[in-house]
Design brief:
Length: 261
């Protein structure tokens, strides 16, 4: 059985430099797909120090354009779809206060946590890189827990992004901490449709079997990097089968937590 997907809070735009289509095309594709609530959550423009320029997120000086565009579409399409302004952000402890100060004037609706990196952005720190290093797994879990406790994040995107290839018992012990914290804070875990479509290491059976047994709550996220992804019924069907296999019934909607900066 395919669950109706009436909300999607994981949507990118071309500003992140690896997505396609206009902002308007995302809105129109979402409407065609029957989505009632659409959240834009492009990769957050981190105010990096020392002139570092990221190639996987919008530049800080593009923020205004992003915000203006999403707000304009929100007003224009208000009778057809509810649009929310957000970002997908990593929790980078050293830059977190700077990020909050940077985002404060924009009065965003929500943040989702996508912990792509540990420490500074860069290939070596990418969480999806396979590694048997327990210390790295522990750091991922510690970082995610600390981030969730800020109460700034509405849900955790691809919680199983960390690509740990070591002992299963270690994986289970560490990820149990993550799941129990999310449960305590009532923060849903995302089943990521892009990962499933592209057969990445997530969504992973070992993680969702564990999280399901621990009683977490779940939400589907398209992680749309192009508008047509909303219309990809096959991936939605496959994701629903994946959920059923783990006795998961995803939430139809999540309560957005407006970040209090
Ligand atoms: Zn992306
Ligand atoms: Zn994403």
């Amino acid at each position: 059985m395919t669950y109706p997907m009436i909300c999607n809070y994981h949507t990118h735009t071309t500003r992140c430099q690896h997505a396609f289509g206009t902002d308007r095309e995302y809105v129109e594709a979402a409407i065609s797909a029957g989505i009632k609530k659409l959240g834009f959550s492009d990769h957050v423009p981190y105010p990096f120090k020392d002139g570092y320029v990221s190639h996987i997120r919008m530049a800080t000086d593009e923020t205004e354009d992003y915000v203006t565009s999403v707000q304009a579409l929100k007003a224009e399409y208000k009778d057809d779809i509810e649009i929310f302004l957000g970002f997908e952000a990593e929790y980078l402890k050293d830059l977190w206060d700077d990020l909050k100060a940077f985002l404060a004037p924009y009065h965003i609706d929500y943040l989702i946590l996508g912990q792509h990196f540990l420490g500074m952005e860069g290939d070596g720190n990418y969480c999806g890189r396979p590694s048997p290093d327990e210390e790295r797994l522990t750091k991922y879990v510690d970082t995610v827990i600390e981030a969730l406790r800020t109460n700034c994040f509405s849900y955790l995107a691809h919680p199983d992004l960390i690509n740990f290839t070591g002992d299963e018992k270690v994986y289970k012990r560490q990820m149990t901490r993550l799941c129990l914290t999310a449960k305590e804070l009532n923060i849903p875990l995302e089943i990521n449709l892009l990962g499933l479509m592209e057969q990445r290491q997530y969504p992973s059976n070992r993680f969702f079997s564990l999280a399901s047994s621990l009683g977490n709550s779940f939400i589907l996220g398209r992680d749309a990097h192009e508008p047509t992804m909303f219309l990809d019924k096959q991936t939605l069907d496959d994701t629903c089968l994946f959920a059923q296999k783990h006795q998961i019934v995803p939430l139809l909607d999540v309560i957005l937590r407006k970040p209090m900066f």
